[in-house]
Write a structure and sequence with these properties.
This is Sigma 54-interacting transcriptional regulator. By secondary structure, the chain is α/β, with parallel strands linked by helices. The chain has five domains: about 80 residues, 3-Layer(aba) Sandwich (Rossmann fold); about 110 residues, Beta-Lactamase; about 150 residues, 3-Layer(aba) Sandwich (Rossmann fold); about 70 residues, Helicase, Ruva Protein, domain 3 (Orthogonal Bundle), CATH 1.10.8.60; about 90 residues, Winged helix-like DNA-binding domain superfamily/Winged helix DNA-binding domain (Arc Repressor Mutant, subunit A, Orthogonal Bundle), CATH 1.10.10. Strand 1, helix 1 and strand 2 form a beta-alpha-beta unit. Helix 13 packs across helix 14, helix 20 packs across helix 22 and helix 25 crosses helix 26. The N and C termini lie far apart (about 110 Å).
Length: about 675
């Protein structure tokens, strides 16, 4: 005999939609009757096996019309994944209309979307007969397109709100139709809607309708679920359990779990009626994380259920939870594309760093302040196999030793006065499977260095006040602007720690040694600040010749200063440093002096021609462009210098042999090097 379901909603259209949905899911096993408040169809006594009511308010209105022995279900609703995905595509922080039949229904839909997790946008409820329609260009509506204001340019229809998994389960259980839940069409429906798993733990303690509800709710979960009765016979075994254990459902249902999976301690749980949490077992050579709970009702034991998953999957989930719990956004934002520069020096460092990223060894980044040590550390992390995990950075100079120790290693509750209740996760634990960046490592106290060394060597950490060892898999990238070798000699840095960190040394180039990148960086910073101004030739020269003790950080400060002047053209008197204190660009190292003397002996009386070519290339350098033989020859003709393209070619080859220029292949032209710039005045 068919079961009767009466559906009562505010809108007749919604009632018809729910009736159609139920018919599609339960087919010939049910008949439906539609009632709604908007057409006054609720009259007389409603007699049905189940009365499905949209809201509590509607129930209070119609309860006197419902036969006393009817089963009542207040609907739990959701939306289809396709509609929810459309909402998630809306840019963060956007203000959006939510259009529905009434203010109450609009607010309910907004609340539903927020509960499902799409809380990145601001919704404004809009409904028919609203006095003032907000001026918003995007509207979201649950199938009520007709009520969307005409001025809206983009309409997102997420479809009617639909019955959630909990409502379908309740209907099936109350009508003894739970066997239908296993049918493909209902399983496909469950997969098509947005829902959550909050009912799983609650279900573990419910014994009435245990077999049906357990199967309904848990079959589609990613975790493996195994249910056994008091004798240890398996009565539930979902698809995920098949994947984890490796045994097919038909080969395990009805059999004793101890015979097939002796590694799972069901007997212990059934004997003691106590849960086993977070136990690691090995099955078929794979580490499995296991939780087993007794199933009881009114203190009567009915069986036990296990939640299992591969330990590697559990670790990935744990990292997501840790990052949400900490809420500090330990993410590497930068990649190698964010490191600006076209100089040979910076490209060489980037190439070395990219190769280091593929390794698992510790890296020690050396560089003056402002050279971008953390920028490189983040880029290395994002190019490594650990990029999906946390990038955790800590400045060793910013915290006193005691506080830094608790930050790195964490602590247990009551470890010291003021310790947080429940203890605290250390940064090593947080960075598990990821990268820990130790900035200003040269400032770390010797006592803490010893403990850090042990963690790096043993790959395990113990919290302050704790008595258990926690295994960690962390890659260390350390950075310093100090000479650690000298600190080792002075007894201020442990030699063994130095060698542990300095497996892969990376030396960053100061800005003064890659001057061709300076004006590129100026343009990049101007774009970030959304400012437009032009540097005069004298200012550009001053920037190129400045010593830049603070490197890129100092450069950024100066550019920000110039941006706030609100001037379109920047002259020498506008710059925030004294050009008279420009570093001596022409100071030569001993080997450079020898090279210039050798070169002058080589070119003899033709030195003027070489100087002419160098100066032409220097002009191109200041204009940030390569210069070819033809343009040099044309310039020579204008200035009355007799140089053929063939002779210019020979001069360029000679200059390249002495590292004064770089000749690009094809039509790339030639560029003067820093040594070439230095050499011009010394060649006279």
């Amino acid at each position: 005999m068919k079961k009767k379901i009466a559906v009562i909603t505010l809108s007749s259209a919604v009632a018809s939609f729910y009736c159609k949905q139920l018919q599609e899911l339960f087919g010939e096993y049910i008949i439906t009757e539609r009632y709604s408040l908007d057409d006054n169809s609720v009259e007389g006594i409603i007699d049905a096996d189940i009365v499905l009511i949209a809201t509590d308010d509607i129930y209070r209105t119609v309860k006197n019309y419902i036969k006393k022995d009817c089963e009542i279900i207040i609907t739990s609703i959701t939306i289809f994944k396709d509609g929810f995905n459309k909402v998630n595509e809306i840019p963060k922080g956007k203000k959006v209309m939510l259009v529905n039949l009434s203010l109450e229904m609009a607010v309910e839909t907004i609340s539903l979307i927020y509960q499902l997790g799409a809380n990145h946008i601001e919704f404004v409820p809009v409904y028919p007969m609203m006095k003032e329609i907000p001026n918003i260009d995007i509207a979201v509506t649950p199938g009520e397109m007709r009520y969307v204001p005409e001025n809206v340019s983009r309409i997102i229809d997420i479809g009617h709100r639909v019955l959630d998994i909990n409502t379908i389960i309740d209907i099936a259980a109350k009508l003894d139709l739970d066997s239908l839940i296993k049918k493909e069409k209902i399983q496909n429906y469950f997969n098509s809607i947005v829902t959550n798993r909050s009912g799983v733990q609650k279900l573990m303690g419910i014994t009435s309708r245990l077999e049906s509800e357990f199967s309904i709710l848990l079959q589609g979960l990613e975790e493996g679920i195994i249910g056994v009765d008091l004798k240890g016979s398996v009565y539930f075994y979902n698809e995920s359990a098949e994947k984890v254990i490796g045994l097919k459902k038909e080969n395990i249902l009805g059999r004793y779990v101890k015979e097939l999976i002796p590694e799972l301690p069901f007997e212990q749980v059934l004997h003691r009626a106590k849960s086993i949490k977070q136990k690691l077992v090995e099955i078929n050579g794979c580490a499995i994380s296991v939780n087993i709970d007794p199933i009881t009702n009114n203190k009567i034991l009915y069986g036990a259920a296990a939640i299992i998953k591969r330990f590697s999957d559990a670790e990935k989930e744990q990292h997501k939870l840790r990052s949400q719990l900490i809420g500090k956004g330990h993410i590497a934002k930068y990649t190698f594309e964010d490191i600006i520069g076209e100089s040979k020096e910076i490209n060489k460092v980037k190439d070395i760093a990219k190769r280091m990223a593929k390794s698992e060894s510790s890296i020690l980044i050396r560089g003056e302040t402002g050279t971008g040590k953390e920028l490189f550390a983040q880029a290395i992390h994002n190019a490594s196999n650990r990029k999906k995990y946390q990038f955790v950075a800590v400045n060793c100079a910013a915290l006193p030793e005691s506080l830094l120790e608790s930050e790195l290693f964490g602590y247990e509750e009551g470890a010291f006065t003021g310790a947080r209740k429940g203890g605290k996760l250390g940064l090593f634990e947080l960075a598990h499977m990821g990268t820990l960046f130790l900035d200003e490592i040269g400032e770390m106290e010797l006592g803490l260095q010893a403990r850090l060394l042990r963690v790096i060597q043993e790959r395990e950490v113990m919290r302050i006040g704790g008595d258990r060892v926690i295994n960690v898999d962390v890659r260390i990238i350390a950075a310093t602007n100090r000479d650690l070798k000298n600190l080792v000699k002075e007894g201020k840095f442990r030699q063994d720690l130095y060698f542990r960190l300095n497996v892969l040394p990376l030396n960053l180039i100061p800005l003064r040694e890659r001057k061709e990148d300076i004006l590129l960086l100026v343009d990049k910073i101007k774009k970030e600040l959304k400012k437009e101004f032009v540097l005069s030739e004298s200012v550009s020269e001053a920037f190129l010749n400045h010593i830049w003790e603070g490197n890129v950080r100092e450069l950024r400060n100066y550019v920000e200063y110039l941006a706030h002047l609100e001037k379109k053209y920047i002259d020498l008197e506008d710059i925030p440093f004294n050009p008279s204190k420009i570093s001596n660009l022409y100071d030569l190292r001993d080997e450079e002096i020898i090279t210039i003397k050798t070169f002058k002996q080589y070119v003899r009386n033709k030195v003027d021609r070489y100087i002419f070519v160098l100066k032409e290339l220097e002009k191109g350098y200041k204009n940030r462009e390569s210069v070819g033989r033809r343009s040099i020859a044309k310039s020579a003709e204008i200035q009355g210098v007799f140089l053929s393209e063939q002779e210019i070619r020979r001069i360029l080859v000679d200059l390249e042999n002495y590292n004064m220029v770089e000749i690009s292949k094809g039509r790339g032209g030639s560029k003067i090097t820093q040594f070439g710039i230095k050499a011009i005045d010394k060649l006279y």
